[in-house]
Write a structure and sequence with these properties.
Layout (H helix, E strand, L loop, with lengths): L2 E6 L9 H7 L8 E6 L3 E7 L12 E2 L5 E9 L2 H10 L9 H12 L9 E9 L4 E6 L8 E5 L2 E5 L2 H4 L11 H10 L12 E3 L4 E6 L2 E6 L13 H19 L6 E4 L4 H13 L5 E6 L8 H11 L2 E6 L6 H12 L8 H12 L4 E3 L4 H5 L3 H12 L4 H11 L11 H12 L3 H7 L6 H7 L4
Parallel strand pairs: 13-14, 13-16, 14-15
Antiparallel strand pairs: 1-3, 1-9, 2-3, 4-5, 5-6, 6-7, 7-11, 8-9, 8-10, 11-12
Helix pairs in contact: 2-3, 6-7, 12-15, 13-14, 14-15
Length: 448
């Protein structure tokens, strides 16, 4: 994980130390090396976490003539193949860093290069002679990139705090962003909680050219594309895709581990990682001994089967849970109502004691329909013909059922499900994820 920041100075002058101040707010993302580039027209900085080519690749990286450069956050998994193609076209490299590969790809193919990148990234590239900056973000928006526009000026950063270094930024709550948070439990692009600051869209690019802005996308979800898969052929292709993806993610010049929860997703990642790795894998997990949702028995089965070097932490109030929650406000920038955030915080700290990079099963529930809400959709279809008066009567009766503090208890699911059946289907689906209803939002927020 790295961090980038930058801004233009077409019609104003920033203090010389401003870019270093912005970059310094991101040092937790990139503790290994920090660097800046400054010119009369724009300033850019990077905080680097070294993963590939530890001895080279310090950022920013400039072209031979010094006219163009890059600051980069992410990892490109096909950078070796791209490097070979670029070398065949006459490019010469000074490092083995994937960051340099992205710079040279941009010099060769301009914005068309982004569609060639397979990985997760947020990047800023520039050309002094063209008075130009180009920003881009990976297809899924894994790496964050915040932007702000003020007249003919552009500001950008990996985190909000690097933008709020600028006193020129307004500190006003964005009500649209707040509405998103209360309705979805997070704030999707392009919204943020700060008025005037946006997120660059996943799969999107933004170009600033001497005060003029343009935006576009290099990729979008391929809706409507169908394949004549059988169950067996789909299984075979999925197997090959996961195998290739995990193998690519294992490429690292620093110690690497696997987060293991005991569930299907993380155990799947471990299976393919063990298949591809020639050395013993390090695994890490959080346990909840004595609680109904503890999955230690499944973790131990996976550890035994794949013979991993395993480290576990039992999460209890003795771990200063309150202090960790307070730290979220600084490191997260924006809130996220994810019940797993606290365990992941401690899992990350545990993992950092032995590794720099970790693989996890995050995102699999979204890809493969693993959430209980998908079942709720099917059940809702079956009760859709019931009179709403009957559903409301049952719901009122359920209010006498004592609230349980178990994770996703039966009491919680029944009440939540019935409340959702009284909503429009699309609204019900996110409500089943634990969000506020429209009535609850109105009760909570009263616009000035």
């Amino acid at each position: 994980m790295c961090g980038i920041a930058g801004f233009t100075t077409r019609n104003w002058s920033a203090p010389p130390e401003r870019i270093r101040q912005a970059t310094a707010t991101l040092i937790h993302r990139g503790p290994d090396q920090q660097g800046v580039f400054q010119s009369p027209l724009f300033s850019l900085g990077a905080a680097r976490l070294k993963i590939i080519d530890l001895d080279h690749g310090n950022q920013p990286i400039l072209s031979e003539d010094g006219d163009s450069g890059i600051v980069f956050n992410g990892e490109i998994y096909n950078h070796v193949a791209l490097r070979a193609e670029l070398e065949s076209l006459g490019h010469r490299f000074a490092s083995h860093s994937d960051t340099e590969t992205v710079l040279r790809a941009f010099l060769e193919w301009d914005k068309d290069c982004f569609a060639k990148l397979r990985g997760m990234f947020a990047v800023a590239l520039w050309s002094e002679s063209q008075k130009r900056i180009v920003l881009a973000r990976d297809r899924m928006g894994i790496k964050p990139l915040y932007i702000a526009r003020q007249d003919e000026e552009l500001f950008f950063a990996s985190e909000l705090k690097a933008l709020l270094v600028h006193p020129e930024m307004d500190r006003r709550l964005n009500l649209a962003g707040l509405d998103c948070y209360l309705a979805l439990n997070y704030i999707p692009a392009p919204w943020t909680l700060v008025e005037g600051i946006e997120k660059l869209a996943p799969g999107g690019w933004l170009e600033w050219r001497d005060g003029e802005l343009s935006t576009g996308s290099y990729w979008s979800l391929p809706f409507g594309v169908s394949h004549a898969y059988t169950l067996e052929s789909a299984k075979e292709e999925l197997d090959a895709l996961i195998e290739d993806a995990v193998r690519e993610h294992l490429v690292s010049d620093v110690p690497l581990g696997v987060w293991l929860s005991g569930g299907i997703d993380s155990t799947t990642i471990l299976h393919y990682a063990a298949k591809a790795s020639r050395s013993q894998l390090k695994t890490f997990s959080i346990s909840f001994h004595g609680r109904s949702f503890d999955e230690t028995q499944y973790v131990q089965r996976a550890v035994k089967q794949y013979e991993t070097d395993h480290t576990e932490l039992d999460l209890t109030p003795a771990e200063d849970l309150g202090g960790a929650i307070e730290e979220f406000a600084y490191y997260s920038d924006e809130p996220s109502a994810d019940a797993g955030a606290l365990p992941v915080w401690f899992l990350s700290k545990l993992c950092k004691t032995k590794t720099t990079v970790a693989l996890s099963g995050e995102g699999a529930d979204e890809l493969f329909g693993g959430y209980l809400t998908y079942r709720a959709n099917r059940f809702a279809n079956k009760v859709s013909g019931f009179p709403s008066a009957l559903l409301r009567t049952i719901l009122r009766a359920l209010q006498y059922w004592p609230v349980s503090d178990d994770k996703i208890s039966l009491e919680y699911k029944l009440k939540r499900f019935l409340e959702g059946t009284l909503m429009l289907p699309a609204r019900a689906h996110v409500y089943w994820n634990g969000t506020f209803s429209d009535a609850e939002k109105k009760a909570l927020v009263r616009p000035p």
